[in-house]
Amino acid sequence: MAKASNNPRTFLGVDWNIFLLGIVSFLTDVSSEMIFSVFSIFFTVILGASTFLLGLIEGLSDFAASSLDYISGYLSDITGKRRRYAAMGYGFSTAAKTLLLFANSVIIASAFRVVERLGKSFRGPPRDAWIASLTTDKNRGYSFGVHKALDKSGAILGPLIAYLILNALGQTKSTFTLLFQIALIPAILAVILLFFIKEKPEPVQPRENIFKAYKKLSPEYKHYLHTAVLFSVAYFSFSFLLLKAYIVGFEIKDVVLLYALFNVAFVIVSAPIGKLGDIIGRKKIIVVEYLAYFLMCLGFIFATTKIEVIILFVLFGIFYAIDEGQSKAYIGDMEKVKRGTAIGLYNFVTGVVYLPASLIAGYLWGINPTYAFVFAGIVSITAMTFFIVSKR
């Protein structure tokens, strides 16, 4: 009788279950990015909200997107159940999108933006810890890179669908409502698929409060966490980049295509950068991340032509590919046991900083858009220096 193989099934060089999680993220992003690619325009142009209010809502949504991370990561650690909490998060985000079907006011649109991000917050750490458990030190960066590439592939298709709808039917409120209805379909499919993915059994971790858990994390992780908090002060919403493109001369429908271009750049470099990190070490990749953000800020200070904006959107895609995938892989390298807690804590504390950072960006933008980019550039290069000089 033939002996069953102990080798896990793979596809694209990663565990099959990681690939399926990538498809879940792909479908979710098709849905989410159909909405987010047009949300800043819908919010300010169609509903008439101010840019300061946009900055406030984006800051609140970014805080919401990390407010439950520690809780969900902690729960997934102490129960050993990653899929349960990931599914709850995906389901909550999908349910929140129904609010947009009734978005007749700034209040409802604002509520959607914040509530939907709560679901993202809850699903992230359990899912990323789930992915890390299916990898080794030799393929962790590549595995996260493949997952994020699949994730952002949905962010390419989503804006393109939004573009086709707006281009065919016009940029009216009724067209936006139809777009939001269509966006619900892939979100529902993603939740269904999630229940067909197997999770790897993991040991249950002891219950402890956030302060006790922090003390037990490695010094290397704490240094990276401190660096990330500093860097987060430089954060400003992607919506401001889209508004900058609008100022330079792109039409509303073309702004959607720029968003797709950003995601194309992300997808192309995500897996190769992950593989490079597996080879040369992820610390060097993190330095590249901070440098790319600084160069992007510098570029937007002086950008006055469409081609310059296009190049900067590609650079932002490269930065984001590292930030989204390799930061989680780096944490997975440093913390082998309490991965859900470590990822959740990282997401939570950086998300807390995003709110004041977005308010600062919105305030500076109101005075002069250049000031927002100057401030972000100075903070990012400071964070990079701190990481290099102080790292253990």
Description of the molecule:
With 392 residues, the chain is mainly alpha-helical. 80% of the residues lie in helices and 1% in strands. The longest helix is centred in the first third of the chain and has 31 residues, at 16-46. The chain is globular, with a radius of gyration of 20 Å.
Shape: globular
CATH topology: Growth Hormone, Chain: A
Number of strands: 2
Structural class estimated from helices and strands: mainly alpha
* Secondary-structure element pattern, one letter each: EEHHHHHHHHHHHHHHH
Number of helices: 15
Work out the strand percent: under 5%
Helix proportion range: over 70%
Mean pLDDT over the full residue set: 87
The side-by-side strand order for the widest beta sheet comes to 1-2
Question: Main sheet?
Answer: 2 strands, antiparallel
How many domain units?
Answer: 1
Ends apart, CA distance between termini = 53 Å
The CATH homologous superfamily name equals MFS general substrate transporter like domains
**Radius of gyration, rounded?**
20 Å
In the CATH classification, which architecture applies?
Up-down Bundle
